[in-house]
Amino acid sequence: MVNTMHARRHVARLIAVAAGALAAGALALPGAASAAPVSYSSGQLAAASDAVERTGVAGIAWHTDAATGRVVVTADSSVSDAALAKIRQSSGAVRIERTAGVFSPLLSAGAAIYGGSYRCSLGFNVVSGSTYYFLTAGHCGAVASTWYTNSSHATLIGSNVGYTFPGSDYALVRYSNTSLSHPGGFTVADAYVGENVTRTGSTTGTHTGKVTALNATVRYSGSPGGTVTGLIQTTVCAEGGDSGGPLYDGNKALGLTSGGSGNCTSGGTTFFQPARAAASHFGVTIY
């Protein structure tokens, strides 16, 4: 015969254990299933990207992450909570991440290639027929038309053939000083997510990092400001004056430094104009 009092105590213990497990979220009931994450179509993601663009919020960059099916928005430190709320309300397909510093074109007054009161960095040497040029950032071309090797403007390099900024961020400068050498050693290539890359600039020298996104759009704050599309997003640090410098992987020419946030002490997020798009736009060959 079963001891009734013992059975009641046993049942009470089972109920207590089950209740505790439910409170901790540790007990799965038979047939229960967690809600599946919302899946967005390519058309919905494109619409979400357009919606982010229409918010007009400055200090953000965004790209479509096909792996997670979300439009990833990276917001710099200048973006307010109210602006973030505006972005979130634009679409349910948006995921927001924060980064330190402020997104801006990396202009500065200082060393390397000098134009007016600014300095930038030479990107890749290029050629068309028997004429030699170099690529740099378009926002550099927007603020200076003639470039020199020193801040006193004593040694001429050459003048702009053309530039595009905003929208894209590239400029072409023709060598007019025949006494200057223009070595090569690169072949144009396309970056891929996860690639280990290197960047060189006149302010901070050489630094490395990884590609985190392709076809990113960034809306820069400050002057010159504006929205640039089709960029390579990376973890490589950069600072003012590094603009236009090369991004590469071995002898593969990948991009030109456009802008970003942070610095080479604390790190940051940096964007690059793909080198292939720049060379194609001007009809020149990276060598």
From TrEMBL:
Residues 130-275 form the Peptidase S1 domain. It comes from the Bacteria. SUPFAM superfamilies: Trypsin-like serine proteases. The keyword Disulfide bond applies. Residues 40-93 form the Peptidase S1A alpha-lytic prodomain domain. Keywords: Disulfide bond, Hydrolase, Protease, Serine protease, Signal, Zymogen. Pfam families: Pro_Al_protease (PF02983), Trypsin (PF00089). This is S1 family peptidase. It comes from Dactylosporangium salmoneum.
